[in-house]
Design brief:
Shape: elongated
CATH class of the largest domain: Mainly Beta
Strand content: 35-45%
Oligomer: single chain
Number of helices: 11
Number of domains: 6
Structural class: alpha+beta
Low-confidence stretches: 1-38
Radius of gyration: 41 Å
Helix content: 10-25%
CATH topology of the largest domain: Elongation Factor Tu (Ef-tu), domain 3
Length: 750
């Protein structure tokens, strides 16, 4: 830096004669005593060159303004989305313990607050159905022993010729029947969650166990947070006996505005601050993004998993609320300055850079900047002649700006980039006659699926998660159902009977002494049993079992404990409001699945416009959250009934290929339906016109670069163009973007 005010360097201010030559203005009056609410500006010791942006302050003037500076620093600046956050439990971390059979609680093994493992026995239920099942098994075993002895004796008699072969066949059929009954009893025993060794012990013992109980097991590992477990209490299979929650991992549900959703992806960092833990920040990342907007809040749900800190008691509990900061990664290191260093003049943002200090005086240069992200008290500088190490005025920057009085609206390149300014020539254009509709992103019926429980029961398992992509037919959950058990046992029983009757038929056909009528009767029974088997197979297929499952039931006599709940369509799992162990009714919807591959838009046509909106018309759609984006499509179909309350008719717009990838269900949109088109001599984009009817303006850039606010008269308009009939000529340069900033800048002119 120079030590003299007379420094002849090109970057320095010259002596008074030279300063006068470049129209340097000396502030000697008190016309700006209270600039924008700040301290009075000094009346002397200030030299300003408006054209070049130079400013010279004497020590007294600098002290009067209390000017301080800070250094330009290069650092990455991350963006942030602030949102409301609530804590939920993952679907597989919460559930209810239930009994498989009605009965009475005889033993309780846990208490509220106790930690249990998954499948741990929390209580035992005494059930009359267990007694009945034991008796059925023991009776079948006794009959197997008796009939087996009879068959052995008859075989000896047949060999000696004392007994006809038909008698032996009948006895063997009876033996097969009672063996089948024993197989069915074993299958039912295992389906109830009882062990194989206990069934074998029952048969070996030969007497029923009056103390046999049915275990009630914990659906998940975790803590008993509520229990209705009392010895002697009569319970039903649908009754929730104990609630268990695993708090080791929780979900943070973040409500994100529609306009911000496109910037959030899986893996995006999230900082969570909870009301219950002031001053503490919990860090995680986004694990799922909902493909729909909540119809009530119109927010999109974003989920992030969060581990509870290790400790005896969980610190993050379901139902807690707070704030979530979704962190948008820094693009790259950029020059940053303190926020306080940035001043504004019209649409221009600028800083004052310290350039020299000579003989106690201070020299500054006004430099326009384009700003980016803000982080704390610093802001990115995207464009502007700043380099690391430059010092910018922090305190006093607004006061220094008051020393410049432009009087006209002129915008530098950095300011143009900062406000997104775009200028286009006015000219002829095609203006459409249109009908405007309110609408929202919707899904065709074939792309919206509801996964329901095919049978009544309780939820045994959950195989999916929020935001997970699934295919049509994938198992989302399983439901334990008494009806499923009955269908399977019927299939086991009937298939065994079919095998028995088939074997009997083959044997009696070889016996000459068997009456033909006996053959016909057996053939009839075989045909009837085949029909029953096919009927039962179709029923089991209807409730979600696949052929391999059904074959295993028939061949190996292995029954399934739960019926699958399958996804009806391919897509993303969006909703589920049940829990493990919770009772559900047949055909009750458990999951919603959305296929976002081909969304359309549903618009509401007012009664007066019904005749104008026809199938096939071109439609331009703009999302409320992103009005600059235009989605093209056509009216695909319309409703046939006007709503009694809305007085409107539904119309569906099918979007052109390739424009629907980023759309989500529920997004609001404005639809412009084109009904006719004509050519106008002078048009400008809709965004170029500001003001109100009778007092409308555009901003015209003159050849010298200064923007002029011009009053205009308009006529026809659509969603894109406005016809100008007075005040503007074709070819004049009109601002079409950044107009709002120009309005503000024009109002600030002094």
């Amino acid at each position: 830096m120079s030590s003299s005010l007379n420094d002849t360097s090109p970057r320095r201010l010259r002596r008074p004669a030279a300063l006068a030559a470049i129209c340097l203005v000396t502030i000697c009056v008190t016309v700006l005593l209270a600039h924008e609410g700040h301290a009075p500006l000094p009346t002397k010791g200030v030299q300003v060159d408006v054209a070049s942006g130079h400013l010279l302050l004497t020590p007294a003037a600098r002290d009067s303004l209390v000017v301080t500076t800070a250094e330009v620093e290069v650092k990455p600046v991350e963006g942030r989305i602030l949102a409301y956050a609530t804590i939920d439990l993952p679907w597989t971390h919460h559930g209810f313990a239930t009994s498989r059979l009605p009965g009475r609680i005889v033993r309780v093994h846990v208490s509220p607050g106790q930690t249990v493992r998954a499948d741990e026995v929390v209580a035992e239920v005494r059930s009359l159905e267990l007694d009945t099942l034991q008796l059925e098994a023991l009776t079948a075993q006794t009959e197997v022993s008796l009939n087996d002895k009879l068959v052995r004796e008859l075989r000896t008699s047949v060999e000696s010729g004392a007994v006809a072969g038909q008698v032996l066949i009948d006895a063997e059929s009876k033996l097969a029947q009672v063996r089948n009954a024993l197989v069915v009893a074993r299958s039912k025993w295992l389906a109830l969650g009882l062990r194989t060794d206990s069934f074998d012990a029952l048969l070996k013992r030969g007497t029923a166990d009056p103390g046999l109980t049915l275990p009630v097991r914990a659906p998940v590992g975790g803590t008993i947070i509520h229990a209705e477990l009392t010895a002697g209490k009569v319970v039903e299979p649908t009754e929730h006996l104990a609630e268990v929650a695993d708090h080791s991992t929780v979900w943070v549900r973040v409500g994100v505005l529609e306009k911000d959703l496109a910037r959030v992806t899986v893996g995006t960092p999230v900082e969570v601050s909870l009301v219950a833990h002031p001053g503490e920040v919990f860090r995680t990342t986004v694990s799922a993004v909902a493909p729909y907007l909540d119809p009530t809040t119109h927010l999109a749900s974003v989920w992030a998993e969060l581990k509870n800190p290790a400790g005896a008691e969980p610190r993050i509990l379901p139902g807690m609320t707070g704030r979530a900061d979704v962190i948008l990664p820094a693009e790259k290191p950029r020059a940053t300055v303190p926020v306080a260093a940035v001043a504004r003049e019209g649409v221009d943002r600028f800083v004052f850079v310290e350039e020299a200090s000579a003989a106690g005086a201070s020299e500054y240069r006004k430099k326009s900047v384009a700003l980016g992200r803000r982080a704390g008290d610093r802001v990115e500088v995207l464009a502007g002649e700043l380099v690391p190490g430059d010092r910018v005025v922090v305190r006093g920057s607004h006061e220094l700006s008051g020393l410049f009085a432009p009087g006209v609206l002129r915008i530098g390149p950095e300011a143009e980039r900062s406000i997104g300014l775009r200028v286009e020539p006015a000219g002829p254009g095609a203006v459409d006659e249109t009908v405007t509709l309110d609408g929202a992103i919707d899904l065709p019926p074939a792309d919206r699926g509801s996964a329901a429980s095919p049978l009544s029961g309780v939820i045994a398992s959950i195989r999916t998660d929020r935001g997970r992509t699934v295919k049509a037919g994938d198992v989302l959950a399983e439901v334990i159902s008494p009806e499923l058990l009955t269908l399977q046992l019927d299939l086991v029983r009937v298939s065994l009977d079919l095998q028995l009757e088939g074997d009997t038929l083959a044997r009696i056909k070889d016996l000459a002494a068997v009456p033909q009528r006996r053959v016909w009767e057996t053939e009839s029974r075989v045909a009837a049993l085949k029909s029953q088997v096919e009927t039962l197979r179709r029923k089991l297929e209807t409730v979600g079992l696949v052929s391999s499952d059904i074959d295993r039931i028939v061949q190996k006599k292995e029954v399934l404990t739960a019926v699958p709940v399958r996804s009806p369509v391919s897509g993303v799992v969006v909703t589920f409001d049940k829990a493990l162990g919770q009772a559900v009714a047949a055909q009750e919807v458990l999951f919603s699945v959305h296929n976002q591959a081909r969304p359309w838009i549903m618009g509401n046509v007012s009664e007066r416009d019904v005749r104008r909106v026809r199938v096939g018309l071109v439609v331009r759609a703009r999302l409320i959250s992103a009005p600059e984006t235009v989605l093209a499509g056509r009216v695909a179909r319309s409703g046939r009934t006007v709503g009694a309350e809305s007085r409107s008719l539904a119309a569906w717009v099918e979007l052109d290929a390739g424009v629907s990838k980023a759309l989500i269900h529920g997004q609001l949109a404005t639809l412009t339906v084109v009904t006719a088109t004509r050519t106008a001599a002078v048009t400008v984009p809709v965004g170029a016109v500001t003001g109100e009817p009778g007092a409308q303006f555009v901003f015209v850039r003159r050849p010298d670069g200064v923007f002029e606010r011009r009053a205009v008269e308009t006529a026809t308009s659509d969603d894109r163009l406005v016809e100008v009939v007075r005040g503007l000529a074709a070819g004049e340069q009109v601002a079409v973007q950044g107009v709002t900033e120009l309005v503000t800048g024009f109002a600030s002119l002094r």
